[in-house]
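pinned: reference chain
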Amino acid sequence: MKRPLELWGGVECTVARIGDDFRNQSLETGHGERISDIDRIAGLGIRTVRYPVLWETVSPDAPDQAEFSWHDERLRRLQDLDMRAIAGLCHHGSGPRYTDMLDSAWPELLADHAAKVARRYPHLDLYTPVNEPLTTARFSGLYGHWYPHQTSYPSFLRMLVNECKATVLSMREIRKVRADAQLVQTDDLGKTFSTPALAYQAEHENQRRWLTFDLLCGMVDRHHPWWSIFLKNGIREEELSFFLDADAAPDIIGINHYLTSERYLDERASRYPEHHSGGNGRHQYADAEAVRMPLPAEELGPLARLRETWERYRRPIAVTEAHHGCTRDEQLRWLLEVWQAARTLQDEGADIRAVTVWSLFGTVDWNSLLTQRNGSYEPGPFDVRSGGDEPRPTALARAAEGLAKEGHFDHPVLDRAGWWKRDIRYYRRPSRRSNACRLVSDPRQILITGANGTLGRAFSRICDIRGLDHVLVSRQEMDIADLESVQSAINCYQPWAVINTAGYVRVAQAEEEPERCFRENTLGAENLARVCSAQSVPLITFSSDLVFDGTLNRPYGESDPVNPASVYGASKAEAEGRVLAAHENALVIRTSAFFGPWDRYNFVWWVLNTLSKGEIVEASTDQVSPTYVPDLVHEVLNLVIDGERGLWHLANSGAVSWYDLAVEAARRGGYDTSLVVKAGEAQASQTVLTSERGVLLPTFDSAFDRFFNDSEIDWSSNELRTVAAE
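pinned: its structure tokens
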């Protein structure tokens, strides 16, 4: 009888040394301070979790010193909740400061740690002594990213052999305490494709990718294609013979597969972004993501890689990491694709035990392989950026709970395939568009109001990029201030969510047109809330920092009382109350002044356009939170998918005055900053926003960098005049 596919969980816990700096992901995501996270995992229905008992945290200073108190508390809680831990002993680490993977004593030292763990926690029966030996050896010994920062094949292979030897010795020690203990051996598994000229290099890498499992399974003998390569690079024959008994062959082969794991090698490097350039001493070539090439779909992806693994080893398999650092919709699509791949292999007769939802509490700076401290956070099922010490469950948490408890999960974003199967993935898009990305004939859609406005067009543009089906309506198609028009449109389009970007936006003119301002901003939002509530459709609508008068002299949070000083601010404040009263699942986003790359109706554009004509710019010293439109739209869509509700402040973090913003725009645009002058002598107000629920957007400085670097506009004065005159 086929066993049901399980959903396991995993906590990103890498302790990586880079130079003399140790990075601990459990501390950086805050998990190290929250034992309550164990209960959050259990609440999802997950019964097996990859959990750290890391050498570097237990014995950081000397091998004969061990501090287990942190682990005692957490492993006890896992036991209390009837959860099974897969104990990780070294996770992408080179060991404590007193050793490293080139040290001949490294295997015995790790095995000693394993013995201590087994004796202290005899209930543990699943172990991963070394996570991803091949990947760690590549990053530390071949590419130089991590300590000890080597870049040679002898170093790479020495590290790999030491890691695998440490695994064997560790399992021997563990089994002295627990004879039935099982090895869950993980490694990243991809595949390399290439042009014909580089087929030899692809073959080399495709043999290399199996080395962790081949060594532990006793397959690297004199007939193995890498036997001679090991010997050539300083690994002795007796060291390889050590593995032939295969007494630590994996009980479960853990496959970690990422979208970047599959590569394509092409000697025509100029066709690819510069950062892909590389070589092997014989050829210079681009090493790019295979998913961006027009390769046969059946040759790529988790299903193909899992099938290869089963056919090669015929041992039980689990996907031990399923994670994608991307937008929420793509994260969901990837997890469900991996889950379905595992189920398909099960149906073919393979022994696939589980899929592991990875990075339960997210990761920090993995987009730079931990080599930079940028604070770049990728959420997982829980987002740790929430206010307080309670991570916020995302849509991935609901997906994990559905898969763990019911074996299935549905969400409207799953009506489309991930970006890796849409035409957007190609470096050079094909002349004919593919419809293969549509997984259902009639995909569910979002309704977006405000077709003629900056924000509405930005939502439509980014929904296209993210594969989110939507309809963008104008006032002629749906007048939000007309209840009957709203009802008719909602009945017609049957959206799964409504995003309202329509409304009155002329702040100064609102003082002369208060009735019109309130009609469009307040009555319109209330009408949407009433209709959406009646049909159980989530509503997202926008408010403003101008609901505050700017006299608090600190950033405003969601709980601060509103006190508008203008007609426009009053219309938004009134709208907030009416919407939240009418619709319990409405999400109201307070934000600040927009700037972005796709329109000219914003302060930054006005500054640059004015300066391009040699004219003076007057700007006030009022402080605000300028908000980069792409950042705002992406994060709002994530919150929509997560099913968030209530009031939320979203603005790029950091305060700046209009005057300083204009000066910085002038400087970056190459204009004379002396043309920017302060306007008036009135006391400056401060409507800067912060959030008690979670600061989700990047810093203003980061946003401004991207505005100038990624903009489709050449900010030279001649080009600016040309574009402005269109």
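why pinned: DSSP finds 23 helices and 30 strands in the chain. The domain at 6-270+294-406 is CATH 3.20.20.80 (TIM Barrel).
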